[in-house]
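Hi, here's the filled form for the chain we discussed.

Project: internal
Contact: R.S.
Residues: 315
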Amino acid sequence: MSAASGGLDAGARSAPLPFGRRRLTIWRRNVLISYLFILPFYLLFVVFVLVPFVWGLGLSLAEGGILEPARYVGLRNYGRVLADFRVAIVLQNALKYVLMIVPSSLVLAMLFALLINSRWTAWPAAFRAIVFFPLLASGAATAQIWGYILLPGAGILSYFLTRLGLPDVHWLTDPAAAPVAVALITVWHGVGFPTLVLSAALYGVPHEIVEAARIDGAGARAVFFRITLPLIRPVLMFLVVIGTIGAFQIFDTVYVLTQGGPEYATQTIVGMIYGFAFQARESEGMAAALGVILFLIIMPISLVQMRVLRGDVEA
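And the returned structure, exactly as it came back:
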């Protein structure tokens, strides 16, 4: 009787699962494998983004916390940051950088993308590589090179200005010219990314729609403004938001070239955070508070981007 029951149990164990249960088991295994693939990303996100953010948020409410024990002070650091006259100057500088960098980058990137996608452009791949090449260098190296180019009296740009009979400009020591120089360097260094994105977006515009518009008598200008631009609007919005966030986070170019001077004319928010925390050692809590303020500035921009892009996709 026991042998028979043992044989029966073995047969039950070896019997195949029903189709529904087998399909559910395969689905669970696939889900588990999918989570294992994305697990490294979430681990890196938690370790390098979420934990530092929570720690910085707590640091903004305390004194010390890095080299000495933390002492809770509430919102005192935020009050000290907002009362500092330098922070108001830095926020104005950030707005200036956004207004100078974002429109000029998009206009140049659009012109380059149109040239790359033009049928009359020879060697478009080489032109694309030339435009993208500056982005491969680090911001600090780029700033160092431009520091020699903009050197008054000895730089290449100074040489050409004097040969043309124009006055030499002290690009990095003049409070009016220094922010313009930083913006120009930033545009030159980063224009390759929006160029490649816009080039891909233009390539994705359906040729049937463009040809139909041309058959109906639309010129090149009408096709561009009435068909091409509306179709790539989500891409343009994405580049505007990414460019705005990048302009708010400029650091390495300013740190290498001007150290925030002259007279705080080129200082940035990230540079002020670095100064609070590591240079003047005024307060790690003030640095963290200014970082939270920067987050509160950037977060609505990202939310607007998500809402606009979601509306474009649903439309």
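Let me know if anything looks off before we file it.
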